[in-house]
Amino acid sequence: MAFSDDTRQELARVIPNARCCRLAELSAFYEMSGFLLGRQNQVLDFNTSWPYVARKILIMLKGLYPNLPTQVLVVKSRSRRSQICTVRVLGRQHAGQVYQDLKDQSVLDGSDVPRKRCCRRAYLRGAFLSGGSITNPERTYHLEISTEQSRVAGKILATIAALDLEAGLTERKGSLVVYMKDGGQIASLLGLMGAHSALLHFENVRIMKEMRNQVNRLVNCETANVDKTVRAALAQLEDIELIDAVIGLEELPPKLREVARLRREHPYASLQELGEMMKPKLSKSGVNYRLRQIREKARQLDKLHSNS
Ligand SMILES: [Zn+2]
Prior knowledge:
By secondary structure, the chain is an alpha+beta fold. The protein has helices at about 1-10, 20-35, 50-65, 90-105, 115-130, 150-160, 185-195, 195-245, 255-265, 270-275, 285-305; strands spanning about 35, 45-50, 70-75, 85-90, 130-135, 145, 170, 175-180.
């Protein structure tokens, strides 16, 4: 959870400069967990579990509407383990104005994607701060944003797609969960939302993991090669034993006899090493050629032997 908390705290410190982006981010907060309340819509509420997110909402509201009458309420749950912080806009006129501005900016309560790219990024930041979490990349690559409203889930999905990224949708305990599983895509989204420290950590882990995988691949590859060499050497030894048993190695031409003798004495030597032990030295392909001739000879003898 620590990485998720760090990411959320970092994003809570990002305050967009442009009015359009502040409204876009606030509209995400409103759609995810906001309410227009009262018989005559006297108050507009933004709810969050995290005080630092409430603080951000308040800062953005006060930046947009300097004299806005607001109230912050904190309600602890009975177990006191969780809490709900509410940033409340007071007064029918004020609540109505903020609501109208959010609606104009981000087509509230619709599924339309924010028009401008800067606002799409801000919208997703707000959505993540409301209902998002990210798994420590050491464990696995997973980022998600959950909501109980299908139209909001659809809008988050569409906004992610509008930024040329891909997300999936699933259902869990009555909530809709928009999720991403690809490390590269998650990294891109972190960058777009402005979580630069989180992105740095995420990418460092990703590079380390990638390097570890590459090393493992190399080691596996190496092991496979060693296996191949050992299997080939064993086959060569069998050929040599067969020839020795049936006709005797001294019946082989001198060049083949020398390779056979060296192979017997150095069962684990590579072809190159065998070649270097020969007088005069022989190339790897030269050794290979002679061993193939030995193999051919062994095959002939084997055939004769089994026919007789
Ligand atoms: Zn914008």
